[in-house]
Amino acid sequence: MFTGLIADIGEVSALAEDRDGATLQIATWLANELGEGDSIAVDGVCLTATEVGDGGFAAQAMRETLERSALGGLTIGARVNLELPLRAADRLGGHVVQGHVDGIGTVSAIDEQGFARVLRVASEEPGLVRYLVEKGSVAVNGVSLTVSALIESHPPGFEVSLIPETLQRTNLGRLEVGDKVNLEADVLAKHVERLLEART
Question: What is the pLDDT of residue 13?
């Protein structure tokens, strides 16, 4: 489990892809806190460190992961958000993030509003926006954010406002219109829907 508070921006230093999936080599100082078999969120996708060395780690992503997330579009040199799992004694500073991506979004607009940058994201996953509420939580590339507006038109989507701290500490500050991002809705909304379905 994660909180959506990014610890480091890593860099994809090597990438090997075949029909079964891909092996990513990612450079980061967080390797000092990783062991083989540990979980780590890479742009919001929970992966397992298969090798750990000085200054980086390797992780494998199966074909389904590449197809259901924006990891399939990564290239060597790409910058990725990294977060280690939540410890039981840590503060829950963001919201509960599982690292199970619900779908891919596309940045459809960027608007500078004072010191904030407003991102409009269109969801490519039908039905994902129904789990979002204004002032509720959403994870974008693994970053815990507050939904500032819902977009009900086609394609449906939402807006988030990014403060300078978020722009500096995550890869969201490098996004441009047309870029793909990983989206994860609040798991509590999905559980509530499932419980209500069981009652009807």
Answer: 98
Q: Is 79 helix (H, G, I), strand (E, B) or coil?
A: strand
**Count: domains in the chain:** 2
Q: How many other C-beta atoms are found inside a 10 Å radius of the C-beta of residue 120?
A: 19
In degrees to the nearest 10, what's the CA dihedral of 173, 79, 128, 67?
150
pLDDT in tens, 60-86: 999 999 999 999 999 999 999 999 999
Which of the listed residues 83, 114, 130 is the one where a domain comes to its end?
83
Q: What residues of the chain score a pLDDT lower than 50?
A: none
| Cα–Cα dist 64/62, whole Å | 6
Assess contact for 35 and 51: CB atoms under 8 A: no
Provide the domain limits for residue 13: 8-83
Q: Which two tokens stand for residue 181?
A: 């991002």
* 67 and 153 co-located in one domain: no
**112 with 27, same domain?**
no
Are 85 and 39 spatial neighbours (Cβ–Cβ below 8 Å)? yes
Smallest CA-to-CA distance from 81 within 99, 93, 107 is with 99
Q: Which residues pair with 165 in a beta bridge?
A: none
SS3 of 12-35: the string is EEEEEEECCEEEEEEECHHHHHCC
Answering whether pTM is above 0.85, one says: yes
> Residues with Cβ < 8 Å from 6, sequence gap 6 or more?
81, 82, 83, 142, 143, 169, 170
Task: Tell me the CATH number at 51.
Answer: 2.40.30.20
